[in-house]
User: Which sequence fits this backbone?
């Protein structure tokens, strides 16, 4: 059985997290718990763990400082963050330190945890240069490709795939190299390019059929991605 050190200053949060996952089926157990970074560090100096899962904001020593200290001791230690914050600043700081995942409290599911643990155990099977994706991200990509002309945002995807928008964005960018918003803009631009080459409909119709909300956003995105305006692109081809 693989071991986890769980760090959170709220006992109720630790209990809820432990109860949310079927740990036995994943061959993991919460071996120890700590209510702050200082207590967790003391435990870490005495024992080894396959995974450390820590909150960010805690008294005495916060999660970010704990992560820094642990990685100084063992640069290869696998660490994940469990937080109630949706603030990307926390996520960015945590990922810069090298954590493997960032979970949002109350949204974490058994399947998400399973995917994370599989990634720890089998890194050689993980996505490489955007060629392979996990089942969830493959589903998101397929959905975006089929519905690129619809009005889709992160709140829509959150509800559709039952995954918090912060975690979805993080996982999507980790595997594809871009955010869901950037991905769908490129899909729309590719569709617009195809319609421009056909030359049978106006730019106004292309804007509507490719899913852009207004001409300004279309022209801005097209010039940024393609390098020329729609009319210049059509004229060159």
Assistant:
């Amino acid at each position: 059985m693989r071991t986890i050190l769980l760090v959170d200053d709220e006992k109720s949060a630790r209990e809820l997290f432990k109860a949310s996952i079927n740990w036995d089926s994943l061959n993991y157990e919460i071996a120890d718990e700590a209510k702050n970074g200082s207590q967790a560090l003391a435990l870490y100096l005495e024992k080894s763990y396959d995974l450390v899962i820590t909150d960010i904001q805690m008294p005495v020593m916060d999660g970010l400082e704990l992560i820094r200290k642990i990685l100084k001791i063992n640069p290869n230690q696998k660490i994940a963050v469990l937080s109630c914050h949706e603030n990307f600043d926390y996520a960015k700081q945590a990922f810069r330190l090298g954590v493997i995942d960032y979970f949002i409290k109350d949204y974490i599911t058994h399947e998400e945890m399973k995917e994370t643990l599989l990634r720890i155990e089998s890194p050689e099977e993980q996505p490489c240069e955007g060629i392979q994706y996990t089942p969830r991200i493959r589903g998101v990509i397929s959905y975006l490709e089929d519905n690129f002309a619809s009005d889709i945002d992160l709140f829509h995807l959150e509800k559709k795939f039952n995954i918090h928008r912060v975690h979805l964005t993080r996982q999507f960018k980790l595997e594809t190299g871009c955010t869901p918003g950037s991905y769908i803009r490129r899909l729309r631009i590719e569709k617009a390019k195809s319609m421009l080459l056909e030359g049978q409909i106006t730019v106004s119709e292309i804007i509507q059929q490719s899913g852009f909300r207004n001409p300004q956003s279309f022209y801005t995105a097209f010039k940024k991605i393609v390098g020329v305006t729609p009319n210049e692109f059509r004229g060159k081809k």
The mean pLDDT is 83. The longest strand covers residues 28-34.
